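In the current project phase, we have settled on a layout for protein records. A sample record is reproduced below.
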Amino acid sequence: MTERRLFPLAALAAALCLGGCSLMPTYERPAAPVAAQWPTATPAVTGTAAADLAWQDFFADATLRQLIATALANNRDLRVAVLNIEQARAQLGIRRADQFPTVNAQATGSRTPTSSGGIASAYAAGLAVTAYEIDFFGRVASLKEQALAQYLATQEGSATAQISLISTVAQGWLGLLADEELLAVSRQTLATRSDSLRLIQLRFDNGASSALELRQGESLMEGARVALAQQQRQRALDENALVLLLGQALPAEARAQLATQRLAQLGWAELPAGLPSDLLTRRPDVRQAESLLIASNANIGAARAAFFPRIALTAGAGSASSALSGLFKDGSWGFTLAPQLVLPLFDAGRNQAGLDAARAGRDIAVAQYEKAIQAAFREVADALAGRDTLAEQLRAQLAQTQAETGRMALTELRYQNGAASLLDQLDAQRSLFAAQQAVVQTRLAYLQNQVLLYKALGGGAPQSAH
């Protein structure tokens, strides 16, 4: 009798132990396939890390902050990314519910003719649990872990989308400001060359200038018109791109600001680069790739569990009677318990193929995770290289423009006194125009590079994502 009593207890203990069993591989983060230091020596910069610096604090310009806030509220791509989070959260809820039995209220009734000419009636009502899987080998738990990791990945994907949107809006606004400056330079140059051409035409009509000088003046004026038309087109395209990001027309306040604001008035504090290993915890796209890797790892556990028996339980409790009025009376109560065990014997290699596919999926996720790290490393390294070289290039470009301005003034003076030819004057005009354009373009590249570095270091993500 003692052995008979101990046997059910031992079986129950064994079942509980199996219930805690998981065939999911232990997750280990792969080693980062990048160097421990940045490829170029960077100056020591102190300050708040980009990932801890809110975009409202990094971008000091009020108009730009308004545009970014508008884009965050209206942009459709970001809206889709947020809705993907809701969808993944719902899928996680489904997987969590699979770990618990579903209890349904059930009522049935039938009336069947008998061979004797009568009517046989049967009625039943109660609660039922249908095909609840007892997760001895962790299949359902692995699927729940997979859904959880995918949910976290969608959260990081939304943070990545926000970072990208903030960066793109900032770069778009800087591009519009540069377009306005280039248009102003082109209009001024066109006016100057038109005045010069009128003087050349007058001198030519009076025999004081050659046909070569006249054609040279005409060429320079038409070149200024070509540049003006190109920049007008680029200005329209850049505004259209920014409007798409904003999800609405460019606000009147921002449009008015374009006429008065200059790129030289903008600037942001330099950011500390930190170490490449910081990208693993700071960049949402890297965290997203790791979450997808964890999901693939959990999927292996579910694929392994398919080789083991699957135990399902169907149960019910309620009242049954041959008369509807007899339901729920004393003596009509009962219960049913129908466990089912399914052990795969032959499936033509389906389970093995599923496991192979899961392992291949994990290997793919590892490669994608490593690629995400390498891409992040390159983005930061590129931005750091640009931070130093573009600053030096801008200083040299400003000095060159100042020299060209002085050269233009001296050439004009020499030309008026007959010490320089008209071609010398036209060449000075052309060089000054090119230098003025280069200053605007270099300053634009410098400011956009600062935005890229902020983005590459994980700046602009929702604070709750850190």
